[in-house]
Amino acid sequence: MIYHDKVYGELEIDEPVILELINSPSLQRLKYVDQAGYLKPYFSHETVKRFDHSVGVFLLLKKFGAPLEEQIAGLIHDVSHAAFSHCIDYVLDAGSEAEHNHQDNVFDAFVRKSEIPEIIKKYNLDLDYILNDDNFPLKEKNLPDLCADRIDYVLRTAVDLQELGQEQVTYLLENLKTQNGNWFFSDFESAKKFADNFFLMNQKHYAGLRSAVMFRTVGDYLRHAIKNNYITEADLYTTDDEVLQKISFYFETDERLKYLRDRMDGKIKAIDSPDDFEAKVAVKSRAVDPYFLSEGGLKRLSEADENWKKVLAEESKPKEYFLKFCD
């Protein structure tokens, strides 16, 4: 199969287990789940879907020679995302607003109840091994380290939001290296360019005011729908459009629902107003501290740049917003 990717270009995918997983219901559902939540009213761009990112993590791992099991782990790592992705952390108690960890908390159980175990078994692979991130240092590491998941989502979103051009992406990928389970850049300059872009994306998008409004308004809308039995928690594991369609039948009889939908669609504006607010919102904030190759070996960016050490400390803390809605 020839796959055309906006970050990595045209690549051939020919591993049977990968092809079967890509075509499985769990992966195909992600084609209809917004990567960040519900971006259309807040960011004018071609929305990235969870499927694009999932395949992207696989492609990045494949490109850098990760073993097949790690490639599979990268491909399936987001199948437990509910509709509207991280907005669900503002709906269900299994997640945290400040950590955005709902899908991580339910991942293992979700995969085991899906068709994925049978596919893994068919190819004589070990599911328990694949589900253990300790086996895959390139695929997953805690912040502020780089990992395939983190690298792909920031490059993909930056391209989609036109914060990075293809020439800049190519430059970063050409300077990206791996050794002994670690990602690093070939020099200080490329490491700094990547970290600066990650900082920009976090400030403007991942942890910015518009995202805070999106998380709160979508969360409130879905929570109201569940409370009133318009949808069930099980419905959240369908697709964005299916959930919206099911809730829409109740507009005529629920004025509060219509109001919450108008807020979610950006028809009712919100401002950050710490002294007079209706809703307090915590948002996960991210920062990276990449390694780069120096004369003495690998060095962290924060070891070579004192200012970056300060940025790292500040950006690693969750952001808080105090929303006031203006009718």
Task: Give a structural overview.
46% of the residues lie in helices and 13% in strands. It has 327 residues and is an alpha+beta fold. It has one domain: Hypothetical protein af1432, CATH 1.10.3210. Strands 3-4-7-8 form a 4-stranded mixed β-sheet. Helix 11 (209-227) runs antiparallel to helix 13. The radius of gyration is 20 Å and the shape is globular.
Key traits:
alpha+beta, 13% strand, globular, 4-stranded mixed sheet, 327 residues, 15 helices, Hypothetical protein af1432
- The N- to C-terminal Cα distance equals 51 Å
Question: Biggest sheet, strands in spatial order?
Answer: 3-4-7-8
Main sheet properties = 4 strands, mixed
For the record, the CATH architecture stands as Orthogonal Bundle
Order of helices and strands: EEHHHHHHHHHEEHHHHEEEEHHE
Give a short overview.
The chain is of the alpha+beta class. Helices cover 46% and strands 13% of the residues. The protein has helices at residues 16-22, 25-29, 50-63, 68-76, 102-112, 116-122, 127-130, 148-160, 166-175, 188-206, 209-227, 240-248, 255-264, 301-304, 306-315, and strands at residues 2-5, 9-12, 176-179, 182-185, 269-272, 279-283, 291-294, 297-300, 319-326.
